[in-house]
Design goal:
This protein is an alpha+beta fold and about 1300 residues long. Helices cover about 45% and strands about 15% of the residues. A hairpin with a 5-residue loop joins strand 22 and strand 23. The longest helix is centred in the C-terminal third of the chain and has 38 residues.
Length: about 1300
C-alpha cells in the first residue's frame, strides 16, 4: 500500500476496503432516498385554498396575507371571481384561507372562521395529537363567523388577528381578533391544530396562523433527531481498540526481534550485506503486515449481513390481511437492537386499542346481562361460510354413505360451537334454540384482563324474552325504563344511510356504543330535530307492536372531565319532566336518593374486592420468591441433566421416551405456571350477585346453568320480584357488578333518573339560562347550576363498555413481560381511561398496587418514598405508577423529586403516563435511555404525537393504523398490529442478535487465526516482515475465500426454532444480558483462534446450529474457490519469469499439488482441528450449558416441539389451556389403527333390521343383541342407535360397525363406541 514499505503488495488493503465502502455508500443512499420519498407523500397532499383570478399558482395568489409581528389580516381586497384552488400542503402560507370537508386532515394550525354545523360548531378529532377519542367542539368567534358565510364575505372581511409565538403547548392558546373595532379573545376553543381531523361537520373554513415546522405538533417533535447506532457496536469498538493496541505491540515485538536477529545473523551473513532496514521502516512494515487483524471492513460488511437479515424478516406471520400491510423496515442499522430491548414505551389509542367501543354488559334491578350480539353475528357468518364450504366439499366427494363420512360430518357440524360458535340474537333468522348451542355461547366473550374468569351473566336476548313473556312485571318496567334512558341520555345525531340503515354521529365513541346497544335491544332513535328525540320501541301486550314516541329536549348539561357526568332533561309524551344522568359511579353515587345506603353497600363490595386482591398478591409474591431473581426463568427443576440430554433424539424411542417423560412433565408444569397468571376465584359473597332463584327446585342456581334446561319452562323463574323491590340488595348486587366489570377491563357508567315538577324545572331553568349567558365564570356557573338539579336520583342501572383492544394485545403484553421487558404506556388521554386500558391489556393486573401521583394532593414526594421503600423490601407483587403530565412537569422542575421519581419508576413493573404532551413522552424516553445504563428502549405509536418519542428511543416502531402513517413513515420499522411486536422481537430480534454476534466473533476469529500465521512465520524469515502468502491471494483473502462462510452464518443461523422462542419468551433474556456477544466470549473465541493459528478457516460451518444447504453451499464455494483461484494463478502468470518466494506459475498443477505429503498434512491438520472444535463445544455444553443449549436439546423431542407449536396455535385461535402430549404405547397405537380401519369400512345395507337387533345403549349390549355369523364363531356386525339429545321429535340415528371376519374374537381389541359417540 505504501511503496517501499508495504510487505504485502500495493493493493492488499485498499481494494477490499473500497469494495465494502462502495456497498455501504450505496445502501445509505438508498435509505435516504426512500425516506425522502416518504416525506414527499406528506408534503404533496392537497387542500382547498381561497384564490382570486387564477386557478393555480402561488405567484399571484390574492390570499397572500403574511405574518407581521404576530398579526394576520384576513382582508382579501381583490376584484374578480373567487374560487377554491387545490394547493399542496408544502405551499400553504400564513394568512391563507383553507376550506375543509368532512374527514379532511387539517394541514396547518388555523383559526376557525366558519362552520356549517349546528350553532356554528365544528367537531374535531384530536386523536393523533393527544390520544383522546372524544371529539372536541370548536366554534368560530361569533362576530367573525357572521362575516365569513360565503367566499365574497370572506374576501371583503377586514379583520386583524394577533396570535402568540409558536410554542409546544397543545392545550392552551392565546390570541385576539379585531373585527369592526370589536376585539374578541382567541383561545384553544377557536383554533384547530395540524394533525387533527374534521368529523361530523360538512364544511369548515379557517385561516392559517402557523405552517410547517412552526405548527404545534411539529414544535413537539425533535428538531435534530439523534443518529441511532446498534448497542453491539459499543463492544465491537472496544475490541477494535484492543486490537489496535495488540497490533502495535506485536509490531513492536517483531521489530525488536528483527534488531536482535540483525545483530546475530544479518551482520554476519555476506549475502545480506546492505540489506538492513531502519527501525522506523521495519515497524511501519509490520503494522502494514498485521493491519488486517483490525477488520476495518467489518462495519461495512455488516451491512451485507443486515440486508440478508432484512430479506428473511419478510415474515408472512407479520402480515395483516385486513389492512394489506406487511412489516416494513426503514433502516437496517439497528436490526440487532430488536433482540436486546429492555423497555417498551407504547402509545394507547390506535396502538393498543382498535378505536372501537362495544357495549358489553349491563346491570339493571340487581341482575347482570351479557350483550354479545355483535359477536354472535360475526360467528354466525363464519358458520354459514363453513357450512357452505362443507356442502361444496360433499358435492365433490359424491354420495358415499360410509360411517366414516357420517362421523366426520357430525364432527364438522359440531366443530363450530366447540370453538365458541353460537347463534345470533333472538331477532336474527339464524337463531337456534337448542341448549347445546346456547351453552356454547358462554365462551363467545371473555375478559382480556381476566381470561380465566367464568362469565355467569345471562344474555340480553334472555332479557328481551323475559320482558316479552312478563310484560307487566316490576322488573320489566325497570328494565324498559333503563333501556329508555340509554336511548335518550346522549347527544348523538341519527343519519339515514343510502342503504336505509340508521347510523349516528357522536362526539364520543362511548355514547355511540350506548345508542347502538339501545338500538339492538329494540329502542331505536330514528330522528333528532333541534329540540326533540324520536324513537321506536317494542310495546303492546306481547311486545310485538312497534311504538313511535317523541320526547322534547328541554336542556342538556354537557359532560366535562371535572363533572364526570352528563345530564339531559326531557318531557315525556304524557307531559312529565324527567332528568336522566349518566357518569362515573363516583360522581353518581353521592347524588342518589339513598346515598348513605349506597355508600355502605359500596364499602362492603370494596372490602371483598380488597380481600381477593390481597390473596392474589400473596400468591404472586410466593411465585416470585420461588423464581428469584425476578429476571431469571431458569431453575434446577427445569434444567436438563447431561444424561437426559443424551437421550433426547438419540437411541431407541421407547427407552428415550421413558427417560424423557419426567423432563416433559416438569417442562409442561413450568410452562403452565408462566402462561397463567394468579387469579383467585370469587367467593360466595361475590357470586351471590349473579345467582337467580329456582323456585321449582327450591334452591339457588347460577343463571348460566339455566341454559341446559328448557327455556320456556324456566322463563318465569329468571327474576325474583322480591329482590327487585329490595333497594339494599339491588345496590349491593349492582355495585358488585360494577366492580367485576371494572376488574375485567370494561368502562363502567352508572345511570340515574328523577322526575321533576314543573315549577321546580322552571325556577332552575332561569338560573341555568343566566349561567350559560354569563360573560364571567361561565363554566363555573354552569357546573353550580347542574349541581343543584342533579340530586336525589333513583338508580336506573349500570353499563359496561369494552374499549376493543387490537387482536392479541393482552397475550403479547404477557409474552413481553415474561421476556423481562418492562412496558410503559404514555398517552394524552384521561387518567381513568388509561388505567382502564392498562387493566384490559394486562399492563396492570388485578392485584397490582396502582400508585397515583397527583400534584393536587400535595403528597407526591411522600407517596413516592413510601412506594419505593415497599418495592425495595419486596412487599409489592406488582407495582404500577400512574402520573399525569402536569405532575410530571412539577417533578421535572424539582431536582430532588426528579431523582426520587426515576429511582421509583426504574424499579416499578409498569408506568402509565396520562395527559402527556408529545415532548413529555420524548423526555421520558430520553431520561430512561440515558439514566438506565446498558438498557435498550423501544417506542411504539401510530400518531403524529408519537413521532418525538419514536425518534428518541433506541428502536422506533410505527403502527400503520387508523391515525395515519406519520409515525410509520418516520419510524425504524412499521407493523400493522401491536401483536406482531411479539414475533418481531422474540423471534427475528433474537435471531438477528445471535447472527450478528456470531458474525462479528467469527470475523475476528478468522482474522486472528489467519494473521497469527504471519507472525509465527516471521521466526523463520528473520523478522524481516516477509509475507508468508502471495500478495494477490492475500488481497482477495477476505472477499473471496473467507467471506461466504461468515456471511451465511450471519444471515441464516437459527439457534432455536420460532415456536420454541415464542412458547418460551424467557429465552429472550440472552440479548438483554449481552450473553451472545461480550468481551468474555470474545476472549474465548480468540483463545481458540490462537490455539488454531495453523488451520484454515473453513471449519466455521461447525458453529452453525441450523445447518442447511445454504451453509454447505458457502463452505463448498469457499473451498472450491481457493482451488480455482490457485489454478487461475497457475495459468495467468507468465512462463519463464522468476517469482521469488512463491511458486506461482504451475505451482499447484506441477509442484505441491502432486505432492502426497502436502495433501496428507492438509487432511491431518483439518482432522485435528475439527476434533478440537467438536471436543471444546461438547465439553462446554456438558459442563457449562446455556439456556439455548438446553432448549436446543429439548426441541429435538417431537412431543416437546409439538407442545411449543400448539401453544402458539392456541394463542392465535384464542383457545384454552395446552397440555403436554404423552407418547403412545404400541398397544394404544394398534388400537387406534383398528378403530380407524373400522371407521373407514363402508356401511353394509343387507336388509331390514328389527327392533330386537338394535341396542339402545352401547353399554347395555348383551348376547341377544349381537348378530353372529352362520357358524356362530365370531362377531360379524354390531348395530346400535342413539337418541338425538336436545333434538325435537326424538329422532333416532343408527350406526353399524363391521368387523374383520379373519380376526378371532379372543384376539380382537374392544372398541369403545361410547367414546366415538361423544365426539359427535
Amino acid at each position: 500500500m505504501i511503496p517501499g514499505l508495504s510487505t504485502t503488495g500495493n493493493y492488499t488493503t485498499i481494494i477490499p476496503l473500497l469494495v465494502f465502502v462502495s456497498i455501504s455508500i450505496a445502501k445509505e443512499g438508498y435509505d435516504d432516498l426512500r425516506r425522502y420519498k416518504l416525506d414527499q407523500v406528506e408534503n404533496n397532499r392537497e387542500t382547498k385554498v381561497l384564490h382570486t383570478y387564477q386557478s393555480v399558482g402561488l405567484e399571484s395568489r390574492a390570499a397572500s396575507g403574511g405574518r407581521l409581528s404576530g398579526e394576520e389580516n384576513t382582508s382579501l381586497h381583490a376584484e374578480g371571481p373567487k374560487h377554491w384552488a387545490s394547493v399542496k400542503w408544502r405551499d400553504i402560507q400564513v394568512g391563507d384561507v383553507v376550506k375543509l370537508k368532512r374527514d379532511d386532515n387539517v394541514p396547518a394550525d388555523m383559526v376557525l372562521l366558519y362552520s356549517d354545523g349546528t350553532n356554528g360548531i365544528a367537531y374535531i378529532e384530536t386523536m393523533a395529537l393527544d390520544g383522546e377519542t372524544n371529539l372536541k367542539s370548536k366554534q368560530a368567534p361569533p362576530t367573525l363567523a357572521k362575516r365569513c358565510t360565503s367566499e365574497d364575505d370572506i374576501a371583503s372581511c377586514c379583520a386583524l388577528v394577533v396570535v402568540e409565538d409558536p410554542n409546544i403547548d397543545l392545550y392552551n392558546f392565546d390570541g385576539r381578533v379585531t373585527v369592526d373595532e370589536e376585539t374578541l379573545p382567541l383561545t384553544a376553543n377557536e383554533t384547530i391544530l395540524r394533525g387533527s381531523t374534521l368529523r361530523n361537520t360538512s364544511t369548515a373554513i379557517g385561516m392559517v396562523i402557523n405552517t410547517g415546522e412552526e405548527c404545534k405538533i411539529r414544535m413537539n417533535a425533535n428538531k435534530s433527531p439523534r443518529i441511532k447506532s446498534p448497542a453491539m457496536q459499543v463492544i465491537s469498538n472496544k475490541i477494535v481498540v484492543l486490537l489496535v493496541v495488540f497490533v502495535v505491540l506485536l509490531s513492536l515485538f517483531c521489530t525488536i526481534a528483527y534488531q536482535i536477529w540483525s545483530e546475530n545473523v544479518e551482520e554476519k551473513s555476506w549475502y545480506l550485506a546492505n540489506a538492513h532496514v531502519p527501525f522506523a521502516q521495519i515497524i511501519i512494515g509490520f503494522i502494514i503486515l498485521y493491519n488486517t487483524l483490525i477488520p476495518l471492513s467489518l462495519y461495512v460488511s455488516l451491512e451485507i449481513i443486515k440486508v440478508g437479515q432484512l430479506i428473511l424478516m419478510s415474515d408472512v406471520e407479520m402480515y395483516d390481511p385486513v389492512s394489506d400491510k406487511p412489516m416494513v423496515c426503514n433502516t437496517t442499522t439497528i436490526l440487532e437492537n430488536l433482540g436486546q430491548v429492555d423497555y417498551i414505551f407504547s402509545d394507547k389509542t390506535g396502538t393498543l386499542t382498535d378505536n372501537v367501543m362495544k357495549f358489553r354488559k349491563l346491570s339493571v334491578a340487581g341482575y347482570a346481562w351479557l350483550h354479545d350480539v355483535d359477536l354472535q353475528k360475526e360467528v354466525a357468518l363464519l358458520e354459514q361460510h363453513h357450512e357452505a364450504a362443507e356442502k361444496e366439499k360433499s358435492k365433490l366427494k359424491g354420495k358415499g354413505k360410509g360411517i366414516a363420512k357420517r362421523h366426520s360430518k357430525k364432527n364438522a357440524s359440531r366443530s363450530a360451537p366447540d370453538r365458541g360458535t353460537v347463534s345470533e340474537s333472538s331477532s336474527s333468522r339464524i337463531l337456534r334454540s337448542d341448549s347445546v348451542r346456547r351453552s356454547a355461547s358462554l365462551s363467545l366473550w371473555k375478559s382480556s384482563a381476566r381470561p380465566s374468569k367464568v362469565q355467569p351473566e345471562m344474555r340480553t336476548e334472555d332479557l328481551l324474552k323475559f320482558m316479552q313473556h312478563r310484560p307487566h312485571s316490576i322488573f320489566t318496567k325497570k328494565a324498559k325504563f333503563f333501556l329508555l334512558s340509554l336511548a335518550l341520555c346522549h347527544t348523538c345525531l341519527p343519519e339515514v344511510q343510502e342503504s336505509g340503515e340508521i347510523d349516528f354521529q357522536a362526539a364520543s365513541p362511548d355514547e355511540l356504543a350506548l345508542v347502538k346497544a339501545a338500538q339492538e335491544l329494540g329502542f331505536m332513535v330514528i330522528d333528532r330535530p333541534a329540540r326533540s328525540i324520536t324513537l321506536t320501541y317494542p310495546g303492546g301486550p306481547d311486545f310485538m307492536e312497534q311504538i313511535t314516541e317523541s320526547y322534547e329536549i328541554l336542556d342538556v348539561i354537557e359532560f366535562s372531565s371535572k363533572r364526570k357526568r352528563m345530564s339531559i332533561i326531557v318531557r315525556f309524551p304524557n307531559g312529565k319532566i324527567c332528568i336522566f344522568c349518566k357518569g362515573a359511579d363516583s360522581a353518581i353515587m353521592p347524588r342518589l336518593k339513598l346515598a348513605p345506603l349506597a355508600m355502605e353497600k359500596k364499602k362492603e363490595v370494596l372490602r371483598r374486592s380488597s380481600v381477593r386482591k390481597s390473596m392474589e398478591a400473596d400468591q404472586a409474591l410466593r411465585r416470585l420468591s420461588e423464581n428469584s431473581p425476578r429476571t431469571s426463568f431458569s431453575r434446577p427443576s427445569v434444567s436438563v441433566s447431561r444424561r437426559s440430554r443424551k437421550s433426547i433424539g438419540n437411541g431407541r424411542s421407547s427407552m428415550a421416551s421413558a427417560r424423557l417423560q419426567p423432563i416433559r412433565d416438569e417442562l409442561d408444569s413450568w410452562l403452565k405456571q408462566r402462561e397463567h397468571d394468579v387469579d383467585v376465584e370469587a367467593g360466595p359473597e361475590d357470586l351471590i350477585a349473579y345467582q337467580s332463584p329456582r323456585t321449582s327446585m327450591n334452591r339457588m342456581s347460577f343463571a348460566s346453568d339455566r341454559r341446559f334446561s328448557s327455556y320456556e319452562d324456566d322463563v318465569h323463574d329468571l327474576i325474583d320480584e322480591d329482590l327487585v323491590l329490595d333497594e339494599a340488595s339491588v345496590f349491593e348486587r349492582c355495585f358488585q357488578h360494577i366492580d367485576d366489570f371494572a376488574s375485567e377491563g370494561l368502562r363502567t357508567l352508572l345511570f340515574g333518573y328523577r322526575f321533576l315538577e314543573e315549577h321546580e324545572f322552571s325556577s332552575w331553568k332561569k338560573l341555568y339560562l343566566d349561567a350559560t349567558t354569563s360573560l364571567v365564570d361561565r363554566q363555573k356557573l354552569i357546573e353550580n347550576a347542574g349541581e343543584m338539579i342533579e340530586q336525589n336520583f333513583d338508580l336506573a342501572g349500570a353499563t359496561a363498555i369494552e374499549d376493543k383492544l387490537q387482536k392479541g394485545v393482552p397475550e403479547t403484553v404477557d409474552k413481553l413481560r415474561r421476556a423481562n421487558i418492562k412496558i410503559w404506556m404514555l398517552t394524552g388521554d384521561k387518567r381513568e381511561t388509561a388505567i382502564n386500558i392498562a387493566h384490559s391489556a394486562r399492563i396492570a393486573k388485578n392485584y397490582s398496587e396502582v400508585v397515583i401521583l397527583d400534584h393536587k394532593t400535595g403528597e407526591v414526594e411522600q407517596r413516592m418514598a413510601t412506594t419505593l421503600l415497599d418495592i425495595t423490601k419486596g412487599a409489592i407483587a406488582h407495582s404500577v405508577i400512574v402520573v399525569d403530565g402536569q405532575t410530571l412537569s412539577e417533578i421535572d422542575a424539582n431536582e430532588t423529586l426528579a431523582l426520587l421519581f426515576f429511582d421509583l419508576v426504574v424499579l416499578a413493573d409498569s408506568v402509565i403516563c396520562c395527559r402527556a404532551s408529545p415532548s413529555q413522552k420524548a423526555s421520558l424516553v430520553k431520561k430512561i435511555r440515558t439514566k438506565v445504563k446498558k438498557s435498550i428502549t423501544l417506542a411504539i405509536g401510530d400518531g403524529a404525537n408519537d413521532i418525538a418519542m419514536i425518534q428518541e428511543a433506541h428502536v422506533g416502531i410505527g403502527i400503520s393504523g387508523k391515525e395515519g402513517l406519520q409515525a410509520a413513515r418516520i419510524s425504524d420499522y412499521s407493523i400493522a398490529q401491536f401483536r406482531f411486536l411479539q414475533r418481531l422481537l422474540l423471534v427475528h430480534g433474537r435471531w438477528n442478535y445471535v447472527r450478528t454476534g456470531k458474525y462479528i466473533l467469527a470475523t475476528f476469529w478468522k482474522e486472528l487465526t489467519f494473521y497469527l500465521v504471519q507472525a509465527i512465520y516471521q521466526k523463520w524469515a528473520g523478522y524481516t516482515g516477509t509475507s508468508l502468502f502471495e500478495s494477490t491471494s492475500l488481497t482477495v483473502f477476505n472477499t473471496l475465500f473467507t467471506s461466504l462462510p461468515v456471511i451465511f452464518l450471519g444471515i441464516f443461523e437459527q439457534d432455536l426454532n420460532a415456536s420454541t422462542l415464542l412458547a418460551v419468551p424467557e429465552l429472550y433474556i440472552q440479548g438483554q444480558r449481552n450473553e451472545g456477544f461480550n468481551i468474555k466470549k470474545y476472549l474465548g473465541w480468540m483463545f481458540m483462534a490462537a490455539s488454531e493459528s495453523m488451520i484454515i478457516f473453513f471449519t466455521m460451518i461447525l458453529e452453525m446450529h441450523n445447518k442447511t444447504y445454504m451453509s454447505a453451499l458457502g463452505w463448498l464455494i469457499s473451498i472450491g474457490g481457493w482451488f480455482l483461484w490457485t489454478l487461475f494463478l497457475s495459468a495467468v502468470y507468465k512462463p519463464g519469469k522468476m517469482y521469488p518466494l512463491y511458486p506461482i506459475k504451475d505451482g499447484f498443477i506441477k509442484f505441491f499439488g502432486h505432492d502426497l505429503l502436502w495433501w496428507m498434512v492438509l487432511a491431518l491438520s483439518l482432522a485435528c482441528l475439527i476434533l478440537l472444535e467438536i471436543g471444546a463445544s461438547s465439553v462446554r455444553k456438558a459442563f457449562w450449558p446455556t439456556d439455548t443449549d438446553v432448549f436446543q436439546a429439548l426441541q429435538k423431542d417431537k412431543l416437546i416441539r409439538q407442545r411449543f407449536e400448539e401453544t402458539i396455535r392456541a394463542e392465535q385461535e384464542g383457545g384454552g389451556e395446552v397440555e403436554m402430549a404423552r407418547e403412545k404405547t404400541s398397544t394404544q397405537a394398534r388400537r387406534e389403527i383398528e378403530i380407524q380401519e373400522l371407521l373407514d369400512r363402508p356401511r353394509v345395507m343387507d336388509g331390514a333390521v328389527t327392533d330386537a337387533e338394535v341396542v339402545r345403549s352401547p353399554v347395555e349390549m348383551n348376547e341377544s343383541s349381537v348378530i353372529r355369523s352362520a357358524s356362530g364363531s365370531h362377531l360379524t356386525r354390531r348395530k346400535f342407535s342413539t337418541d338425538g339429545h336436545g333434538r325435537r321429535g326424538g329422532a333416532t340415528e343408527e350406526y353399524e360397525l363391521v368387523a374383520r371376519k379373519s380376526v378371532p374374537p379372543k384376539t380382537r381389541h374392544s372398541v369403545d363406541i361410547a367414546e366415538i359417540l361423544e365426539r359427535r
